[in-house]
Specification:
Helix content: 25-40%
CATH topology: Spore Coat Polysaccharide Biosynthesis Protein SpsA, Chain A
Oligomer: single chain
Order of helices and strands: HEEEHEHEHEHEEEHHE
Structural class: alpha/beta
CATH architecture: Alpha-Beta Complex
Largest sheet: 8 strands, mixed
Number of helices: 7
CATH class: Alpha Beta
Radius of gyration: 16 Å
Length: about 200
């Protein structure tokens, strides 16, 4: 399986969305929530690092300066500060896409992860990558008809992502164009469960 996906991973950048206010979380800084004695965000970073994507972007809010020493950031991971994070998740996605579009070449897909979903396994992501054939424009895991993460988005939709608003992110595009979505069925709730559940 590793050899099968090696080439496809070169065409994918990752985005880890971790700039939210964490209003549902009542025990301090959400990103520092420990799962198996490791900060939640670090678990996501470590898992994504194993996938060997060439470039990875972690979107944070200005409070990052107070907690960044708690994390080990690999060399090919880039931290982007979202000063407009209070306007919703869409601002983080747009910040990352604008940065990616500065590159001389675009990845075929971006894989969007949420920092508060540390239960996703590498094998789950590899299953989703199997559908990155260029024809599928939005690819997402589903557990019992509930959309999960990571969600993969084809580069042909990057410009459209720049016009999303608020805190619903990709759902705006999917609602307008449901045929763009490729649903991948999962038997585990790892792809939908966050630490607030």
């Amino acid at each position: 399986m590793e050899k099968i996906f090696a080439e496809s991973r070169k065409k994918i950048f990752s985005i880890i969305l971790s700039a939210g206010e964490g209003t549902r979380y009542k025990n301090g800084c959400k990103l520092l929530h420990l799962v198996n004695e490791k900060p939640m965000l670090q678990i996501i970073i470590d898992m994504v690092e194993q996938l060997n994507f060439p470039r990875n972007f972690i979107i944070v809010n200005p409070l990052w300066e107070k907690i960044e020493n708690n994390f080990k950031i690999p060399k090919n991971f880039f931290v982007l500060k979202n000063n407009e994070y209070k306007k919703g998740i869409s601002t983080s996605i747009k910040l990352a896409i604008k940065e990616i579009m500065k590159y001389d070449y675009l990845p075929e897909y971006v894989a969007i992860f949420l920092a508060d979903m540390p239960f996703i396994l590498k094998e789950d992501v590899l299953k989703i990558l199997n559908y990155c054939d260029g024809k599928n424009k939005i690819i997402a895991p589903f557990y019992k008809n509930k959309k999960g993460f990571p969600t993969l988005v084809h580069y042909s939709l990057f410009k459209e992502l720049l016009f999303i608003k608020g805190d619903t992110g990709l759902k705006q595009i999917i609602k307008k164009n449901p045929d763009l979505l490729k649903k991948i069925k999962f038997e585990s709730n790892r792809v939908t469960m966050d630490i607030d559940q």
